[in-house]
Amino acid sequence: MSKIKVMSIFGTRPEAIKMAPLIKELENQKNIESKVCVTAQHRQMLDQVLELFHIRPDYDLDIMKENQSLNGITTRVLVNLEAVFEKENPHIVLVHGDTTTTFAASLAAFYKKIKIGHVEAGLRTNNKYFPFPEEMNRKLTGALADFHFAPTQRAKANLLKEGIDEKNIFVTGNTVIDAMKYTIKNNYVFENNELNNIDYDKKIIMVTAHRRENWGEGIRNICESLIEIVNLNKNIEVVYLVHPNPIVKKTTQEVLGNIDRIHLLPPLDTKDTHNLMKKCYMVMTDSGGIQEEAPHLGKPVLVLRDVTERIEAKEAGTVKIVGVCKDTIVKEANILLSNGEEYFKMSRAINPYGDGNSSIKIVNEILQNFL
Fold first, then answer.
1. Active-site residue flag, 120
2. Dist. CA 368–CA 360, nearest whole Å
3. In angstroms, rounded to a whole number, what is the distance separating the alpha carbons of residues 119 and 97?
4. Are the C-beta atoms of residues 311 and 292 closer than 8 Å to each other?
């Protein structure tokens, strides 16, 4: 074999952030020919990350449609990847995490009998509807994958329980920690100028909430809890990064549109997001990736979901699951805002997701298995 042809496929901003440092490492290897294919399941937010990491995709499927359905995403990825695979015939396809792009790309590779490497493999809630559709995307990808790059020992244990051969599981840490080496800067000036005008002597709460299972009443409860938290604490500011989904935007604007000390901003580019995380006091989120990122910076996380697949973070004490009940959210937020001992325990807990060298570990396993 001359060079190992590795094709990385992703479609959303979270995937791009976590795959970017791995792609840069693949590009540095003389024995690897790196190819990148994006589905653009999310268009604008994906492009921000590609620009930040100077990644030029070899293929851009550009599948995003207004009000797109899961069926539509899945079928467009399947159909479009067939021609890409016929042309390139990679030795291995790398997919990440739990998106619909991840599952559909894995299925398309399986149909062509191409080896599949699953980055961030083995996370589980064991409830197929929470998070939806991510839990089943991840499990189905795991069933199709040949190489499982698990971030933690617990993720490895989950895979072993499902009958995955131990020799095909590699514990590597999480590549998102690698990505933060590229983005966190001292004396950082935000691209979004509103963030430069915030008083960081106050306690800043960074908020994201967009999961499908929270649409409707869940998002409304989160918004109403933020109003109460602000009213009870005069020395705080809330920065809510509002997902562009129309359902999420409509509710947040209706409830929070004119509330003093609550800033509604569109999703930030990755550097702004990571540096806001560094400056904030705490994070409230229903995101998965932020549960890994914020603890690396010593920021406590209140998880606005009833379950999490990041069990290690919960056990380490870096995150706390609070659900979407207004009273519970307010109570738990006020504990962190007023109780220094509780805040210290969460902020000083050890992040279980690695040392920032996950990408090189994954690349080394690929080299060992294909050379």
1. yes
2. 12
3. 6
4. no
